[in-house]
């Protein structure tokens, strides 16, 4: 339990070093990972049931060759595809926002550096270093969050396409 408190304290110190923008980036990254985990839970728990139910419903149909049956098949495949791709646009949006928030942190940090320069001149490198640190930490954090989210987003998208193809291939007409 002590190690958890130490980790929480180190995360809080890290967030304090980056300023308010880093806190917003942390919340955004948390939302991103909640959505990614939700999608993985969907693919491991719900998706097999949805695919199996859809295929069984199609196979229990007596009419599979008529014009109406083909449209019903297309609608069933689309329903599975929509369920599999649900939430992926939001994940992509959050991935795009992470580096932008990091960039905002850079701008805020550089403004602080210029404020220090205006008050103290160039004689206080220590004061300038604090602002430069605030400028670089959010940028780095935004890039790391976006890159890791991008990797998992690509995996989730491949999985969604695979589920749609599996249903389409299993529902012969």
Characterise the protein shown here.
Helices cover 90% and strands 0% of the residues. The protein contains five helices and no strands. Helix 1 (2-18) crosses helix 2, helix 2 runs antiparallel to helix 3 and helix 2 (20-59) runs parallel beside helix 5. It has 173 residues and is an all-alpha fold. The N and C termini lie far apart (58 Å).
Question: How is this fold's topology laid out?
Answer:
Blueprint: H1 2-18, H2 20-59, H3 67-85, H4 88-120, H5 125-170
Helix pairs in contact: 1-2, 2-3, 2-4, 2-5, 3-5, 4-5
Q: How would you describe this structure in keywords?
A:
elongated; 173 residues
What's the tally of helices? 5
Structural class: mainly alpha
Question: From N to C, what is the helix and strand string?
Answer: HHHHH
Q: Mind summarizing the main beta sheet?
A: none
Principal-axis shape equals elongated
Summarize the amount of helix as a percent range. over 70%
End-to-end CA span: 58 Å
Which whole number gives the mean pLDDT? 89
Low-confidence stretches: none
Number of distinct beta strands: 0
Share of residues in strands: under 5%
| Rg calc | 24 Å
Brief overview, please?
This protein has 5 helices and no strands. The protein is an all-alpha fold and 173 residues long.
